[in-house]
Write a structure and sequence with these properties.
The chain is α+β, with helices and mostly antiparallel strands. Among the domains are: 181 residues, Galactose-binding domain-like (Jelly Rolls), CATH 2.60.120.260; 158 residues, Jelly Rolls (Sandwich), CATH 2.60.120; 185 residues, Transferase(Phosphotransferase), domain 1 (Orthogonal Bundle), CATH 1.10.510. 21% of the residues lie in helices and 25% in strands. Strands 2, 3, 4, 8, 11, 14, 15, 16, 20, 23, 24 and 27 form a twelve-stranded mixed beta sheet that branches. A hairpin with a 5-residue loop joins β3 and β4. The structure holds 2-acetamido-2-deoxy-beta-D-glucopyranose (6 copies). The site of one 2-acetamido-2-deoxy-beta-D-glucopyranose (NAG) has 2 residues, from loops. It comes from Actinidia chinensis var. chinensis (Chinese soft-hair kiwi). This is non-specific serine/threonine protein kinase. It is found in: Membrane. Its EC number is 2.7.11.1.
């Protein structure tokens, strides 16, 4: 019975031993995956074809402007439940950089981009998410080798097929990346930046003898080094830089820098893998000529980390001279995903700050893998020529070898070894008796010789199959000491002696037949050489049935069975339930599953333009929001699947997570994570808002979250995604009142329906960009317009569109005269009064400055012409400034000097909310000049 299962989960792996190359630098290995020839590239790196790999397939690709030979080929693997490993020789107790790169290039002609995992040994290294077919995805890790080999394994394809373009190993020979945590943590490289670079090309080998890639600060990619302060200039020198040790940044990197001529250097960048703890170092060398009375002193400023701002950098003093390296840093610092940092000059410094390079790595917890790892690798090395012995990586993690099953302990133990019919010779390896968690052992149908070893080291053993071998000697009486033994098969061997009495006494299923010299205990000398344990016929069957039921039950608890594996692999299910291309996608739920989860659509939690939303709970306890789309004009099944596949590739902390879909019985259903705190709209205007209104600082945080989600849609994805329908009911709040944007991508799904007219104007009255309405040209600035309206709602507590609030014939918030008048007053004369438009439920709990900042930005967002509106990133910056004002005020308040200067702006125009609901026409509103 278990044998059938093991057949089902046949995993194939590969193993490749690469020697230390005799190349350029000791300890460099450069594998050209899918390549067929060895070659040396332009920069002197020696590439080796991975042609010894027996699994996977190779293919050629061609990507515009990518001429490097190693990127003309790749190796890809089936999208199944297996792992595929490369094993590299390393020197133990040595630090290395390992780099894996992935250039997709549409090798499979599929319109679904691949997404899969890579592991270093048993440690989950990264999830590779391809989002641009022509861009090389790079993952780098710095590690201390503790063993003589290291494995990189690809597995768990959720979309597409796993593939790899290159695998590079670079040995360090010193201690620059030494940390006190290195036996438990790897350093995953997040940012390695060369400031003041000459071009977009990175600096690497041979400039960097260890071939680290120092990325140019000019490189254009989403959210990489934005918000650069005005007055930032690049400087460079040809003078040699004393970098003191060869593993600090190479001279070429240190010869360029940026200088903040206005006193500040500011940057914002996304740190992949963060938030978390990291290793962060900055590299400085004075490369400008300072005249005697000039000084350059500055401090690092990180938002929310005042302690870190105390140290003053004075490069020449710290480095003890010009053209010398100074490298302050943090061995362990907590960093956010979006890092904004500033270097600001001190008040007594005559020159602004200077920065040459920076390196940020994230600590990645090392997974030690199965406790049985070293024992099984000694067994495996004995059979090193057999395919099953060359699977590589950890025996259990992230998925077990084909012939192994493991229990679910955090550090898993091997529970089943299935080596039936593998042509094994010699003695039963004595190491097999050291697996403390072993439950099943299948060695039948081999050519094993010698005695049966003492298995009392494996006290959990339940099933032993040793039949059809050449085993000799007696049946050890120690077998009777295994408390859980249920099945023992030793037939057709060359065993002799008597069956131990202890075994005969036990209630086990057994077969001792076919051993000429083996006798039943107490019957020695009789001719009875055929012994069947217990009885015959019905009794045997009966007991076997009970035993197997027990085993099934127990086994389920202890280690993952095939059906459980399948449940963790949504991609597999789709393959069987859908047609051809584009099938590996988001999880496809059956209507039955959805009905179960929602208790037949029992609890409605919302409804909107796209459909009705129901609450649901999956079998594993996960809460979901199920959106049943109303329109039945959706495209055919295939287009729908393509579209939801696109959705499933969009991941951001400020976007509601898309979990899957269902299209059955004419119903189109989307499944999302459930957001406990409902919509922003409910919090602004819902029934309970009078008792507990959302305060200003919270509103700013919500605005920041939502804007970041939108920024990601606009800039972080492959092609810019325009939401088209931003509104307060599409901003959802989680348990911690953090906001996420929902319904992205749906406009497209709905609009491109049967009519095939893609420019149907969609959106919600009140939020709809007038320019888009007129021109039908959709741009990201249309979303900015809608976001401006949301900001106005946050300020005023007035709905974007209302039958009452704004007076007769005036339903739109931007036509609301008090708002217009107040804002223009502010723009024309310094002291406008916006009190009249501020939500009374904010109860003066806000700083007037931060309120103004948002009001002004909101008005910019709703400018009639898109090109006059700011980008969403600029809006984020303004919100963050407003937040820091509020937080500053908060801490002052906590410091007991209450209500300083709050709301103290002079009232020159006192607009009363109740009495002046005058309304401007939309044309009038737009026509009024906005001073700036
Ligand atoms: C890698 O190491 C193993 C074990 O020491 C050795 O047998 C093998 O030859 C090495 N591979 C190469 C290509 O040097
Ligand atoms: C490439 O070099 C490796 C060892 O350096 C060798 O084992 C392999 O056969 C070579 N492959 C080709 C295609 O020459
Ligand atoms: C490829 O390079 C050419 C010339 O260097 C350039 O004009 C073109 O824009 C590049 N194309 C891409 C896709 O980068
Ligand atoms: C595979 O990846 C998905 C997400 O991409 C994750 O939820 C799942 O746990 C992974 N499965 C395994 C076996 O690692
Ligand atoms: C530095 O010296 C220059 C002239 O050499 C002078 O103009 C300037 O004011 C001085 N600056 C300071 C900060 O002393
Ligand atoms: C079994 O092993 C023997 C000797 O090592 C070999 O000659 C034979 O081809 C192997 N058979 C199989 C099926 O692997």
């Amino acid at each position: 019975m278990e044998d059938g299962l093991s057949l089902l989960c046949l995993f194939f792996f590969l193993l490749l031993f690469m020697g230390a190359s005799t190349a350029q630098m000791p300890g460099f290995v450069s594998l050209d995956c899918g390549g067929t020839v060895n070659f040396t590239d332009d920069i002197g790196l020696e590439w080796t074809a991975d042609d010894q790999v027996i699994y996977g397939q190779t293919t050629n690709i061609s990507v515009a402007n990518e001429t490097r030979k190693q990127y003309q080929t790749l190796r890809y693997f089936p999208a199944d439940n297996r792992k595929y490993c490369y094993t590299l020789n390393v020197t133990s107790r040595t630090r290395y950089l390992i780099r894996a790169t992935f250039l997709y290039g549409y090798f499979d002609d599929n319109n679904v981009y691949p997404k899969f995992d890579i592991c270093l040994g048993a440690t989950h290294w990264a999830t590779i998410v391809i989002s641009d077919a022509d861009m090389i995805e790079v993952q780098e890790l710095i590690f201390l080798a503790l063993d003589s080999t290291v494995s990189v394994c690809l597995s768990n394809a959720t979309t597409g097929q796993p593939f790899i373009s290159t695998l590079e190993l670079r040995q360090f020979n010193g201690s620059v990346y030494l940390t006190q945590f290195e036996s438990q943590f790897y350093l995953s490289v997040s940012a390695r930046i060369n400031f003041g670079a000459d071009s977009e090309a990175p600096v690497r080998y041979p400039d960097d003898p260890f071939d680290r890639i120092w990325e140019s600060d000019l490189l254009k990619k989403a959210n990489y080094l934005v918000d650069v302060a005005a007055g930032t200039e690049k400087v460079s020198t040809r003078m040699p830089i004393d970098v003191s040790s060869s593993e600090t940044p190479p001279q070429k990197v240190m010869q360029t820098a940026v200088v903040g001529r206005n006193g500040s250097l500011t940057y914002r960048l996304n740190l992949d893998g963060f938030p978390g703890f990291g290793w962060a170092f900055t590299y400085f060398a004075e490369i400008e000529d300072l005249i005697p009375n000039q000084t350059r002193k500055f401090r690092l400023v990180l938002p929310g980390e005042p302690e870190l701002s105390k140290a003053v950098v004075n490069i020449q003093e710290n480095a003890q001279g010009k053209y010398r390296l100074y490298e302050p840093g943090f061995y362990n610092i907590s960093l956010p995903f979006v890092l904004s940092f500033r270097f600001g000059k001190t008040s007594d410094s005559s020159l602004g700050p200077l920065l040459n390079a920076m390196e940020i790595n994230k600590y990645l917890k090392r997974n030690d893998g199965s406790v049985d790892g070293s024992i099984i690798s000694s067994i495996v090395s004995f059979y090193s020529s057999a395919e099953w012995a060359r699977e590589g990586g950890d025996p259990c993690l992230p998925v077990p070898w084909s012939w192994v099953q493991c229990n679910s302990d955090p550090q898993p133990r091997i529970a089943k070894i299935a080596l039936s019919g593998k042509n094994l010779t010699g003695n039963i390896p004595s190491d097999l008796t050291k697996f403390g968690g072993l439950v099943e052992l299948w060695l039948d149908g081999n050519s094993l010789t010698g005695p049966i070893p003492d298995f009392t080291g494996c006290m959990d053993l339940e099933i032993i199959h040793l039949e059809n071998n050449q085993l000799t000697g007696e049946l050890p009486s120690s077998l009777a000491q295994l408390p859980n033994l249920k099945e023992l098969y030793v037939q057709n061997n060359k065993l002799s002696g008597t069956v131990p009495f202890g075994l005969l006494k036990k209630n086990i299923v057994s077969n001792y037949t076919g051993n000429i010299d083996l006798h039943k205990g107490g019957n020695r000398g009789s001719n009875n050489n055929i012994i069947i344990g217990l009885s015959t016929g019905a009794a045997v069957l009966f007991i076997a049935t009970i035993a197997s039921c027990l085993l099934m039950h127990k086994g389920k608890k202890k280690y993952l069975k095939q059906d459980q594996l399948e449940r963790t692999m949504p991609a597999q299910r789709l393959v069987s339930s859908l047609g051809d291309a584009a099938k590996e996608a988001a999880q496809c739920f059956t209507l039955l599953e959805i009905e179960d989860a929602t208790k037949k659509f029992e609890r409605k939690v919302g409804s909107g333009g796209f459909g009705v939303v129901y609450y649901g709970k999956l079998k594993d306890g996960k809460e979901i929001a199920v959106k049943v789309l109303t329109s039945n004009s959706y495209q055919g099944k295939r287009e729908f699947t393509n579209e939801v596949t696109l959705l499933s590739r969009i991941h951001h902390r400020n976007l509601v997570q898309f979990l899957g879909y269902c299209q059955e019985d004419g119903k189109s259903i989307l499944v999302y994570e459930f957001m406990h705190n409902g919509t922003l709209k409910e919090h602004l205007y819902g029934p309970q808002t009078h008792e507990r209104s959302v305060n200003w600082i919270k509103r700013l945080e919500i605005a920041e979250d939502a804007a970041k989600g939108i920024e990601y849609l606009h800039m972080g994805c492959v092609s810019c995604i325009i939401h088209r329908d931003l509104k307060t009911s599409n901003i959802l709040l989680d348990n911690n009142m953090r906001a996420k944007v929902s319904d992205f991508g749906l406009s497209k799904l709905a609009a491109d329906g049967a009519s095939h007219v893609s420019s149907i104007v969609r959106g919600t009255v009140g939020y709809l960009d007038p320019e888009y309405y007129i021109s039908q040209q959709l741009t990201d600035k249309s979303d900015v317009y809608s976001f401006g309206v949301i900001l106005l709602e946050l300020i005023s507590g007035q709905e974007a569109i209302s039958n009452e609030s704004f007076g007769v014939n005036c339903r739109n918030i931007i036509q609301w005269e008090p708002l217009m008048v107040a804002t223009q007053a502010k723009l024309h004369i310094e002291n406008g009064d916006i009190q009249g438009i501020i939500d009374p439920s904010l109860c003066d709990e806000y700083d007037i400055q931060s309120m103004w900042k948002i009001a002004e930005k909101a008005l910019m967002c709703v400018q009639p012409h898109g090109n006059m509106r700011p980008s969403i990133s600029e809006v984020i910056k303004e919100i963050q400034d407003a937040l820091s004002i509020e937080r500053g005020a908060e801490s002052v308040k906590e410091g007991n000097s209450d209500e300083i200067s709050r709301n103290s702006v002079h009232s020159s125009l006192n607009m009363d909310l109740g009495s002046s609901k005058h309304c401007l026409s939309i044309d009038e509103a737009i026509a009024r000049p906005m001073a700036r």
